């Protein structure tokens, strides 16, 4: 069916795939700032950099874009959804760098293996960078263990850098009193919020054009309806817009209007999550075409 709407609208690729795609990255003001923080962390060899954001706002896509710009003198390890105790953490880390753990290794052996790796890379002029995606899953004890790993750094040179990406609860964990030493090691942190209505419209046009369209395949009222239903979260915007194009092609529509979004809602194709914590209590479906939207992104 997606191939069908590609032909109908003249797209070369799907405009709204939910898979992270750095080639489709839309540089909103917030994304530019988040990326600048990540680059700043690498440039200054910051021991700890933290970027948080709601599910689906594009954190993983930013990391994929960052990896395309890293220097050859950096040894990058990427870990997603790591869980477990401190021994498990070290095994996750060694696996990220394709390092075999000694048979029957205990925690001390695992730590020594990793430290030897970091020191050998430093001797060859390379910096070790460890990136954790979905870092809120690590928990307070494991985050403290990560802080202890930064003790490998000594003198004026940084041998190991940590970059943590996670959902908003990661920031809440880091600010607990028992993690004050961890927080003190964080050189830069940024929260990537959802889009406002204007940014959502620009995002939709951008992806339509990147896919080979004109950008007008989804009209303004439809974009406003998508924004309200998705609450400005890019992943949800993608899901709704993709289904809307399927419906539009099936109905032989030259462009998607707000009535198509209403039809998706009536047909139950859109599952809407609860509002973000801290948002005002409002309906899970906002169907007023001219609803007043707040200006600026959440921080």
From TrEMBL:
PANTHER family: GENERAL SECRETION PATHWAY PROTEIN A-RELATED, PHOSPHORIBULOKINASE _ URIDINE KINASE FAMILY
Pfam families from the UniProt entry: AAA_22
SUPFAM superfamilies, per the entry: P-loop containing nucleoside triphosphate hydrolases
Superkingdom of the organism of origin: Bacteria
Protein name in the entry: ExeA family protein
Coiled-coil region(s): none
Domain spans labelled AAA+ ATPase: 45-187
